[in-house]
Each structure stands twice: as C-alpha cells, then as structure tokens.
Amino acid sequence: MPEFRKDPIVGRWTIIAEERAKRPMPLRQPSYLGSEGLCPFCEGNERFTPPEIAAFRGHGAGPNGTGWRVRAVPNRHPALAIEERLDKRGEGVYDRIGGVGAHEVIIEGPEHHDSLSCLTPERVREILWMYRDRLLDLKNDTRFVHGLIFKNRGAAAGATLEHGHSQLLMSPVTPPIIEQEINGARRFFDYRGRCIYCDIIEQELGDERRIVMDSSQFVVYCPYASRFPFEMAIAPKRHASRFDQLTKGEIDELGSVLREAVWRLELALDDPAYNSVIHSAAFDPHDLPHYHWHFEIVPRLAPIGGLEWGAGYFVNPVAPETAARCLRDVELRPHAPSNRIEWRMTSRQSGLLV
Description:
It is a single chain. The chain is α+β, with helices and mostly antiparallel strands. The protein folds into two domains: 1-173, HIT-like (HIT family, subunit A, 2-Layer Sandwich); 194-354, HIT-like (HIT family, subunit A, 2-Layer Sandwich). The chain has helices at 121-138, 176-192, 196-207, 248-268, 306-311, 320-329, 347-353, and strands spanning 3-6, 13-16, 54-57, 68-74, 89-91, 94-98, 102-107, 146-153, 165-171, 211-214, 218-221, 232-236, 274-279, 294-299, 330-334, 341-345. Helix 1 packs across helix 4 (248-268). Mean pLDDT is 89; it is low at 28-32 and 335-354.
C-alpha cells in the first residue's frame, strides 16, 4: 500500500507507491489503444474504467453509459488510496504517513482527442467546472489538506494514454513545491505587506515583453526566471489563493484563455508534449493574503540533466522575452466549419524556431 516518507535532511515528502508499477507503459508514439486493446476513455467504452464518481451528461443519460461530456473516475493505479489511514509515526530518524488520499482521472471529452485546443471554449469551461466541483467535494474529507490538478500531454510528459485527460490528487500534506512558493510569498508579504504575485502581474503588464495574452480577468506570461523554454503561467488578476474560489464569470473567461494559450503553444512548437499544473493553496477557510493561485504550463522539449538534478540550476536556452514574442506572433483565425483554428507563423517567428 502507498505511504509518504519524509527526507530528514531537506524535509521533502516522497510517495512510495509500488502499485503504480502496474500502469500501462508510457506512449512511445501516438496511440488510440490502452492496455485492453482499445481506448478506455472513449464514449462507449465506459465499462473499461472504474465506475464514475461524477459526470456532466445530457438529459436522461444514466451513469456509466454513453451521453456524457466530462467524466471523473478513480485512477485505476492510484498513487494514494482513500481507504488508507493517516497512521503518522516515526521510524528512528525517519517520519512516515500512511498513503491516504484520492487519485482521480478527469476525462475531458467523449470523442478521441489529445488536446484542449480541439474543444470549444464551452467544453473547456466544463472541464474547469469539474475540477472545481471535485475539489469542493473532496475537501470535505478532513484527512485531506491539499488538492493538486495536473495534466500530462504526450509521452515525454508522462502520459500513458493519448485521450485527453487530467488528474486530481488529494493528499494529507501540502506538496513541497507549493509549500516552497507559499513560504517565499509569506516572506515577501511580511516585508512589504503585499502579495508578490499581484506585484508580478502588475509589473509584467506594465513591461509587456513577457506577456503572451491579456484578458479582462487573466494574464498569460512567460515567467521572468523561466526554467524551461516556452514555460507559461496563467494567473487571475483578482487575488485569490485557491483555484476553487473561482467565480462563474472567471471560469467562463478562463476556458477561452486556457484553450488559446495551449493552442498557441502547440502551433509555435509543432505540437509538443507538455505538463500543466494548477498551483493552489492548501484548504483553509480563509483566503491567504500572500499567495495567489496560478496555472503553470511547461513544454517538454528536452530531458532534465545532471546539472538540474545535481545542483538545482535550470539552464534555459530561450529567453522568456523571446518565447513570449513567438507565442504572441502565432496568428490565429477562425476556420469554418471546424472548431479548430488555422494558423501561420510570421517570418520573424519562423526564423527564431529554425
């Protein structure tokens, strides 16, 4: 059974989950097939997934059958198990916690596709609503303190099935990277009395060089100290520390913003593998004045090497100002009757990516 183990030197938690070794092997090339010989996420194949937890369906469509638009199901090979107990205890200098949690898969549509850019903005909004609904439901379990939503797209990003899907992992501890962000933001707040994320958004909008998109309620930008080429962040302009605090109006707009940001990335980089993660604060009845939830989208263009693993230095060969300019220069125009978008790159951008 899974368990958390804590590194006694740096305080980092690791999930030991031997059950995960039984997962399908990562895709080596685009494939419609899962381990059963067909795509278990396509409409009509609902019997190949665990019974659904939640779904958005058409009127009269029953559970675990056809007629759905978005489904949430338990992960067949979970990193954490809801049946586990916390069971906190020490083993000499080591600390461990039972691997209690929830691990769900959110299937992003009934038809076979591998990208949010294939969907209409309305469909992307429903995916975001499912994220929010599942977080609000699972946070009622007092054993859980944090919910992480992430997406692996493509073999290089860790995807094992091609059909578009996201994952939700509920855990009894705050993930190390989120905790590091929160602690850094708290230090800035204690010194300046302001949210550093709000300051960054204001400065980026004023500078404009790293801005990819600017909507009424969200900003998409390439971070100043981007670790990877074409790394993007999506942040709300309204301060909120948790994703589940989104309003309907914000979700409506975010659906369009996220879809276009992903599509720009795919066009500029010829359909890359990528990871996207929602960084959100731990569950708390109060909003944190020093932390600001946000999306991170990271293309997987090259493997992480010894310098990154050994020293923690990330070497990025593409300046974020260059990346943002390339992403802005992707020209999008509607193409009827499809919901997809035709595109062409400017000569300047094409030269940069040769």
